[in-house]
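Appendix B. One record, verbatim.
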Amino acid sequence: MLIENINLFDIDNLIPLQPEGWSDIRNEFRFYLENSFCKPVKVCMDKQLVGLGCSISFEKSAWIAHIIVHNNFRNKGIGTAVVQFLLDGLKKQKIPSVLLIATEIGEPVYKKLGFRDVCEYVF
């Protein structure tokens, strides 16, 4: 498993990871690439893009966003690896507070990594 930065050439390759019911994730990842406070990453296995994620950091807080794992590669630790990779980067920046919105699929991953519920968010 290789975790590395996403680049503009990766944008169209995100389509197979597009979750049903979500807005086009390519737009968000273009935004992430255009802004230095965002750190979008990808996970590749055997040269195939299988996972994504992004951290968005501010002065004293950060946000973890768009943790997505291809349906055929779930339950293999990829989501956990992406979140931990992003958290490690935020720790190096000495960001004391990290937030996210958990989907039902992602919630167990986040709880395993120490996140806790602080409120309920309804779309």
